[in-house]
Amino acid sequence: MIVRSLKDIIGTDRDVQAETWCSRRFVLAGDRVGFSLHETILYAGTRTRMWYANHIEAVYCVEGEGELLDEETGETHRIEPGVMYLLDKHDHHEFHAITDVRTVCVFNPPVTGRETHDENGAYPLLTEEDA
């Protein structure tokens, strides 16, 4: 059994900071359970372009307001508490955080915690063996 607290993650290497967001990684590839689980906060007033070429991501909003743009169709979706979106087709997307937006995210395959977004907004496909 694994039990982790947010207060134990903040300020560690599982607390990843970026210009437009921060991500607290509760479950990573090294836990060997087949997915990773993150709390991500997207900062108010920011826009983040992303494309997970190598991962499927499910995102559940628990706090805040934002807009999700599907860059391929031009369709926008209002994101607020209780809304989930699933990037099941490796969708190119942009997230506009109107307020700070707190989400819970699940990645498959799991991320290792060492990934950073490349110029396309994608994470490379890393495994624990790449460490």
Automatic annotation (TrEMBL):
Lineage: Bacteria, Bacillati, Actinomycetota, Actinomycetes, Streptosporangiales
Top class in the EC scheme: lyase
Pathway the protein acts in: Amine and polyamine biosynthesis; ectoine biosynthesis; L-ectoine from L-aspartate 4-semialdehyde: step 3/3
Underlying gene: ectC
Keywords attached to this entry: Lyase
Purpose of the protein: Catalyzes the circularization of gamma-N-acetyl-alpha,gamma-diaminobutyric acid (ADABA) to ectoine (1,4,5,6-tetrahydro-2-methyl-4-pyrimidine carboxylic acid), which is an excellent osmoprotectant.
UniProt keyword annotation of DNA damage present: no
Official protein name in the record: L-ectoine synthase
Keyword Lyase set for record: yes
Any coiled-coil regions, as ranges: none
HAMAP family attached to this UniProt entry: Ectoine_synth
Annotated source species: Actinomadura rayongensis
